[in-house]
């Protein structure tokens, strides 16, 4: 079974930066999409950014120009570089993998942006 492990969350002041990492338990082959979702208190879980095995990238409008998603297949890792963080970015961030008609989730990492 594929397992995902997130890291890199923490507490940062508004305007600061964090880089999240998600490591899979094995190298991912075939057609797939990896992404980052977030869920803030009282809100639905929402897509932040995604990247396909063909390197097609999508961002939520709220993070365009501030966040960058990338993946390193040799390291079994997907990254989310978050710059110019805002208090509205505060949430639990989850790594997601879609492959072979299955969906996998990490445990989540807390990102807190103070004002």
Mean pLDDT: 95
**Number of continuous helical runs:** 0
Number of strands: 11
Shape: globular
Oligomer classification = single chain
Helix content: under 10%
The amount of beta strand, in percent, is over 45%
The CA-CA distance between the termini, in Å, is 40 Å
The succession of helices and strands, N to C, reads EEEEEEEEEEE
Spans where pLDDT lies below 50 across 5 or more residues: none
Name the structural class. mainly beta
Rg is: 13 Å
Strand count, sense and barrel status of the largest sheet are: 7 strands, mixed
Question: Overview of this structure, please?
Answer:
Strands 2, 4, 5, 6, 9, 10 and 11 form a 7-stranded mixed β-sheet that branches. The chain has about 120 residues and is mainly β. The mean pLDDT is about 95. The protein has no helices and 11 strands. It has strands spanning about 5, 10-15, 20-25, 30-40, 45-50, 55-60, 65-70, 75-80, 90-100, 100-105, 110-115. About 30% of the residues are buried. The chain is globular and about 40 Å long.
Name its key features.
115 residues; mainly beta; 7-stranded mixed beta sheet; 4-stranded antiparallel beta sheet; 11 strands; globular
Outline of the structure:
The chain is 0% helix and 56% strand.
Reconstruct the topology from this structure.
Layout: E1 4-7, E2 10-13, E3 18-24, E4 32-39, E5 46-52, E6 57-59, E7 67-72, E8 77-82, E9 91-99, E10 102-105, E11 109-114
Parallel strand pairs: 2-11
Antiparallel strand pairs: 1-3, 3-8, 4-5, 4-9, 5-6, 7-8, 9-10, 9-11
């Amino acid at each position: 079974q594929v397992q995902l492990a997130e890291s890199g969350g923490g507490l940062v002041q508004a305007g600061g930066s964090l880089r999240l990492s998600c490591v899979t338990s094995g190298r991912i082959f075939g057609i797939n999409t990896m992404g980052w979702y977030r869920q803030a208190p009282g809100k639905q879980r929402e897509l932040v950014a995604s990247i396909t095995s063909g390197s097609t990238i999508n961002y939520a409008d709220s993070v365009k120009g501030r966040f960058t998603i990338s993946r390193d297949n040799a390291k079994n890792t997907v990254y989310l570089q978050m710059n110019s963080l805002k208090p509205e970015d505060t949430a639990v961030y989850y790594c997601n993998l879609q492959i072979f008609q299955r969906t996998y989730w990490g445990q989540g990492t807390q990102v807190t942006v103070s004002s």
